Amino acid sequence: MVVSNVNVYGIGDSIKASKYPFAVDVDQCTAEITDRVKSLGRCEKGSGHDQFLTGIIVQFDLTFSIKAWTEAERYHFFDFVSSQSTMHRIAKFDASTQCNEYVTEKAIENLNECIDRYNADKSDENYLRVVYNVPTGFRLTARMTTNYRQLKTIYSQRKAHRLPEWRAFCKWCETLPYFREVVINE
Q1: At what angle do helices 164-173 and 148-158 cross, to 10 degrees?
Q2: pLDDT digit string, tens, across residues 85-109
């Protein structure tokens, strides 16, 4: 798992907004992280008290295996901005560098043989052999947009996941500004 090109927006404004419900004069609300801000950020998922976390926007490039992407797409954790495409570029990738360490050499050789056949004869049949023989350990990169509230859910559900990519992703979440302090109850 690789995360790069990270941008985080709206931390100060969202922390300030978390104080609006008890404010008479919102101009007096500050971006200071108080015990109340921590309590709101760490509240039970689904209670609604952590709504201000939705305003902390995170954008990044994420490289995951097809297996991890399949799991990520089951939920509404992320908005996909754009991604690499096996449909458009599968015959151009270097399978030996694109696959993670869990893909066997035999599987990579099989994919390369299918690609070679397709490049020699670009029939629909050969193309389908390529796309249906891509191992789930094949890695693709996508540009993602999400927010701290969604990352809170991912973190709680995936920090002990069997796929190492999810555990690594959760460790990365811990490096985001104020994530440990406001979201994780430690």
Answers
A1: 140
A2: 888 899 999 999 999 999 999 999 9
